[in-house]
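Hi P.,

Sorry for the delay on this. The queue was packed all week, but I finally got your sequence through. Input first:
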Amino acid sequence: MMVLRAVLAELLGLFLDDVRVASAILIWLFFAGTVLPRLGLPSGVPGLVLFAGLAGILVVSVLGQSEGRRG
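Then the structure:
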């Protein structure tokens, strides 16, 4: 049972290594799913906004991790 618990904890850690990044992604997805459709943007623009936000979260996360390793 302990081995199974350790394996599950490790798998969960792969996906939720940084709680701030996971939280930012969930907030961005909520925003994109609730606010963007109501803005009446042309077709394709909400997808670009969704992608840009997720890419921005990734960049900030990677830059923050590299800063943490230097200092």
